[in-house]
Design brief:
The chain is mostly helical and about 280 residues long.
Length: about 280
């Protein structure tokens, strides 16, 4: 079991490390479905690449996915609303998701292996990941993590205190675009490995659990990493012993863990929340 499941487990830990942190930004911004929408844009790019003769896991397919994802990132940065707006930002994110999904189905109908590509994009194939792929993607995620570490004060303030950043004269749309592009780079790298469903789950669920128990950034990061590690480990183990599809089972484990965390919080067994002023001190 250890020999067979070690590579998928390491891949899950790398994905949890980057996505659970990015998820804190997404929850704080209130754009919950931006990951799902950008993942669907990446999927559309992959299917379009197939239409033009690119192999599913080729560099050309990745470039197509990245370009489509960056288009979505630019659109989300340009349409960010301040305060109450007649058109909520989440509505635009949902429209992009639906439009990209419909377009992917239409293109898949004409592309070779189109239907199989849509299935692969949804479910992923993390159980079959190889060590060379882990090393290559791990290096890319490390570079992305270093970027977020260097710019953490900017990104965190725009996510958690956008009004203050705007009062100080920051160019919010520029920093939004940079954040969404960095986010968009992670998505097309993750979707071929884990699938849209698991990528979205790794982004949202650990961050939601962290928000249940703290609003201190450092604490939230460790809580989200711990939650993602536990859910991934349980999902991989049950997938192996029960011979279930790995990606969907891990998603279900995240859901059960979220329910458990919600019950803990509801019945007062969780940690007390710290004052909100400590939330962006990292």
């Amino acid at each position: 079991m250890l020999a067979f499941m070690l590579a998928p487990f390491v891949a899950c830990m790398i994905l949890v490390a980057i996505h659970s942190y990015l998820g804190l930004h997404i929850i704080a911004r209130g754009v919950i479905f931006v990951d799902l929408s950008l993942a669907q844009m990446a999927a559309l790019g992959s299917v379009v690449a197939l239409l033009y003769g690119a192999a599913p896991d080729s560099q050309e397919a990745f470039i197509f996915s990245l370009v489509f994802t960056c288009v979505g990132a630019a659109l989300f940065a340009l349409t960010r609303t301040r305060g109450k707006s007649r058109v909520p930002h989440e509505a635009i994110i949902g429209i992009v998701y639906v439009g990209a999904s419909a377009a992917a189905i239409l293109v898949a109908d004409r592309a070779p292996r189109g239907a199989e590509a849509i299935h692969d994009v949804l479910e992923g194939a993390i159980i079959w990941i190889t060590w060379p792929t882990i090393l290559k993607k791990g290096a890319a995620y490390l570079a992305l993590g270093l970027l977020h570490f260097v710019l953490r004060k900017r990104f965190l303030r725009i996510s958690f205190e956008p009004e203050g950043a705007e009062r100080d004269g920051w160019h919010i749309r520029w920093w939004d675009f940079l954040f969404y592009v960095s986010f968009g780079i992670a998505v097309p790298m993750s979707v071929p490995v884990a699938g849209v469903l698991l990528v979205f789950t790794m982004l949202v669920v650990p961050a939601v659990i962290a928000f249940l128990f703290s609003n201190n950034i450092r604490q939230m990061v460790f809580i989200s990493w711990g939650a993602g590690t536990l859910a991934s480990l349980l999902g991989l183990w049950l997938s192996y012993v029960g011979n279930f599809p790995t990606g969907p089972l891990i998603v279900c484990m995240y859901g059960l863990l979220l329910i458990g965390a919600g019950l803990l919080r509801k019945f007062g067994l969780g940690a007390e929340r710290v004052p909100a002023s400590a939330g962006t001190s990292a």
